[in-house]
Design brief:
The structure is a homotetramer. With about 375 residues, chain A is an alpha+beta fold. Chain A contains 10 helices and 18 strands.
């Protein structure tokens, strides 16, 4: 396996290059009997579409998804679900310039070093378009979670210097602003900041936070497949993520035990934690509180501002990256973070089904 | 697989509980012909041993490792290497108190929720003693890297409010201070801080940074098995880690593209990066610069200071955790971070061997 | 992973149902730099096409394969290769009858028991059309083997009572007869037998043998991933296979050690085995002799001859299966056996690259 | 992973060499709450012990197993179960002869080719002693099956020319005869045959059949992880197995569809198959009938009778293998076949728990 398969029980395999014929994903291990149609997927895919604000690339991508297998009479059959999105907007333009040098901050150089050559058209396999497969697969995972009463919600927490607090806003607003910040005031400030970046022919980074509500305690495997470890892999696998936090994250390292520990108290006969520094995970296993994680995105590397690099004739040259690039990828990455979190959770929910002998007995005695 | 296996090519499987008969690890996929003996492993295991300073638990653990298989006449044979450390210092004391309630910040509650009951003696499977297996396995991985000229070095970067800078110190000093900070002045400040924590019957957190030098470009698989994604899983799988950074990490999210991108320039005929904001990874693949990652550890959850929790009779009670606990785990976690990084790298180095047809041809033609 | 992924290093994931929109496969882990085009795949796919003789279903399937990703400028890029074949010949006919009862010898009943319902159109996921993905993936594997000088050749060894011997024929003839028997005389007898079966509205089974030539010694992992164990999984995963043999197979169990052991002798300075009862595998590892395996196929279960079964109203009913079915699947299965063998070998060839420290050193020192 | 891990959900990893310090196995993914003690394991381990008849090696091996982890207060905890058997009977004798040449029919040559050298003491990793780990792990799997009402029973079906029929005997007799044949008459004939072999300083092969009773329909994944495919891998992974059959096996290939298909009929409201040519598996999924598989073992390769081979100085030499070897391994392999079958089933039973949305809902709603 060379890296395009995620998960052990509910697996997705993404495939496709930015300027190839199509982009897609194959899901294996999806339980049978889930109602599923193209609209379920488009709801998520529409959220990552470009061309929705002046901070996203102005190109129009239809990005219509087609279900090729694994669904019969409106329900999943338990067999692989193959999803495809045809690349319609990728015009055959001249890539000879981009093919001739290594763009700073991109994977051009490392792909050449690894494979000996690269598909240089629009970033090839490293293009953000690869996330179409993740979002299509994540939409299915999210639908499974929904059936179990679990919700996964991501939003833009920071853009450049502008930051909002989780407690303060209405999640309904997330998709209503061009930045993905569910706080109109912060959204306005962030827009102003991004316009400055555009003027300077520069780009910006930001932070996406994701909150899982109503997840049972007990999800996650001890040691290497801890819920936080798998979330760590999931979020770092998104291009441009340079840091990941769980709960208090970095702040936890500077606090004291008495500040960082969450007490257990009773809510009726239910054991609950009044605080949640841990971000809903103890010992790698969900504890019933909200699961909270954060992904930090670097600024888009493609900038028009002059940079220094080396070309294939081994000459140092100045470059100005042209083309249709977002000055920030964070608003479009929100749904990707949400989907990677959903995929991680469903995979571990399935794994947890074998955790106890009484689960086996209850399931298989019912069958007998 | 329920979480105790790490890696796909060079795999380790750790086993054992804090107060069981023994702790161990089985390594599979280790190439044949590596010189290996117990001393190679003890060098690493001694670095995680308790009882070496007043900030580490005063109990003496012999922690002598034994190689049970996979090594013949001083060299690895290519078959599984089984390593065992007997638990000699774990006295049978009275665990009835710890069995009766959920310690805040620990995995007691989540293990009960997941499995229906738990081995409550000394933390059971969630004990820090589990890392013995990781360190023994990581010592083998580090030896392989050494043969290829690659070094992996971790050190304590922060304790509470005391922080040092990577550029400023001599790596030889890392093992010379009780805090693992290779800077005598910072070490002294950190010690003062920890003594305050001890007086307050409280605990502290901190940060471990790890630097990989001399690694080739090309290591890491695109998409889900990116080098950073696998490092993310590896580091978050260490109990108590609440955040992970690669390169500039969190700072990258607040910077602009023109600041965060690393230029490519020539050093003779070699392509190099004069800056390293990326932390040695582009598009999930090593770029030939130093690979830099950071793990943020929460404060030790076991504190004597009063906390609130719930017992098994569903009563809210105040608790004072007694016993032999480190007021900070960071100094002993340094070698664990180093080992998890080494394990991740060796696994991906093996995976990369199949990346090109000409690698296959050069290897198999030689055989013909 | 719910069963549609094969391999650990060179993985294929097949997807698609008989009467869905398309059938396909995603290959991950294919080394970069392999010349590949649609014609390479069609050579293999044409061999499993129906409609080529009166013993194969008369329906015409175009089965044109399209490469959707992973190939750039005629060479594999190291990223996933997505291959698709659109289902063009599957007419929307009336499936209400087949949906109403369980066909004997088919997977209808077990799919219903497993998933609660099934895609009943043309066998759904259990259709022989699933093997299109295997053959497309196997064609890529076979091309890799070819580059290393290894050939994989399967042929029809038996049909009903007619059997031929490996030593006696010209492999060039395999694709020249309707039965896949490279012996015109045996082919004629087998045809006569099949015509009898057709007259009796019955069906026949048979045996496919596969021979790998010029494979190095050393391929296969000890214990659970023995070359024979992986071939066993590969061949039994083909629907209708009820027995698998390696080398002398069943006969070995009745022979004595002195008969069954293969001596080692010298051919110049080369160690060789003058006999090959072992079928080229010792201790699960290739020994340099021809690798020989055999798959035994049951007769096609879809027969017009009357059978007894149960319908969904829980009534016992007699059935006569109508439709376009082969009276024998063996001739079309020959290429499937060849492809599964090639896939198994490439996967283990890649795994073996990490078997020795000197392999790592030779590869990575060259890079430095 | 280099081949010593079996399974995806309930995994075993065996380790150890014939003449190393110990042999062992680590089980991961065992559900919590299973009652387990050393006696449960010894029941199975005693059945593979040598020294029980004159057809088994006369050496005495204590083979006492110790549970090192994963069991607390008599029940499995859900964490890895580490089992160890110390090698006590392996005396340090002179291995210089065996080290100097390649034994025909053994893995000596292929290990050297693969790894560059080998642990030549008593077969090293390829020794039959490796199966201790499988049997210890399989005993745990069998105990899980027992709790679900499923039984797995293997017996010696053939030795040389002597064969018995499944229908004819009392399973209680299996462990009562030195040959493992539960038919006193056949057992006597087989003994006579083996004595002849001993006189001729030769060895014999045979067949083990395994029957699973009371397994639900629905177990096994379509396509590559079919129940028969996984059984194929499991049984071929046992050293010396050269053929595997499911149900009618080889005979199915020579029969006609009307003979080989099993009808479905009603037993009350239960759908059953009056015949079982399929061996309990349709489309790779259990159908509720007995699951029947067979493993064909080659004769023990270590014979005193003169054979030709090559030594490390590249000279052809005649050899007479001395030492404590069984003239047949089949009677001791019976429990190994049983254990590999049990391991395969438990793994697929766990995988099947995620097959349907209503399974997830029933399990997780109960938790809420």
């Amino acid at each position: 396996m060379a890296g395009s398969i995620f998960g052990k029980h509910f697996t997705i395999q993404t495939w496709g290059e930015s300027h190839g014929k199509a982009i897609g994903v194959v899901i294996d291990g999806c339980p049978a009997g889930l109602a599923l149609c193209e609209e379920d997927l488009m709801k998520y895919l529409n959220r990552r579409k470009p061309g929705q604000s002046r901070f996203a690339t102005p190109r129009k991508e239809a990005d219509e998804v087609e279900i090729l297998s694994g669904v019969f009479e409106g329900r999943t059959t338990g067999t692989p679900i193959s999803l495809i999105v045809h690349n319609t907007s990728q015009k055959s333009r001249d890539y000879s310039e981009i093919a001739s040098y290594y763009r700073p901050g991109h994977a051009d150089y490392t792909f050449d070093e690894k494979y000996g050559f690269r598909d240089y058209r629009g970033g090839g396999r490293s293009s953000g378009r690869e996330t179409i497969g993740r979002v299509a697969g994540g939409a299915v995972a999210a639908k499974i979670l929904q059936e179990l009463g679990i919700t996964v919600t991501a939003y833009t927490k920071s853009i450049g210097p502008v930051t909002i607090e989780y407690s303060r806003f209405d999640p309904e607003l997330i998709t209503s602003t061009p930045t993905g910040m569910p706080d109109p005031e912060a959204d306005k400030k962030a827009q102003t900041y991004l316009e400055e970046c555009l003027k300077e022919t520069d780009s910006a980074g930001g932070v996406v936070e994701c909150v899982v509500k109503n997840c049972f305690a007990g999800i996650g495997e001890p040691v290497f497949d801890k819920l936080d470890a798998r979330l760590g892999q999931a979020l770092f696998s998104i291009g441009a993520v340079k840091a990941v936090e769980i709960g208090d994250g970095i702040k936890a390292a500077a606090s004291k035990g008495s500040e960082n520990n969450d007490a257990f108290v009773l809510d009726g006969r239910q054991i609950v934690k009044p605080s949640n520094h841990a971000g809903g995970i103890l010992g790698g296993i969900s504890d019933g509180s909200d699961i909270i994680c954060r992904a930090y995105f670097k600024p888009t590397p493609s900038i028009y501002k002059e940079q220094l690099t080396v070309n294939k004739d081994l000459q140092e040259i100045p470059v100005h990256i042209k083309g249709r690039h977002d000055p920030i990828i964070v608003p479009r990455a929100v749904v990707v973070v949400e989907c990677m979190t959903a995929l991680t959770l469903v995979d571990l929910l399935l794994e947890n089904m074998g955790a106890r002998m009484d689960y086996l007995k209850s399931l298989y005695n019912r069958k007998q």
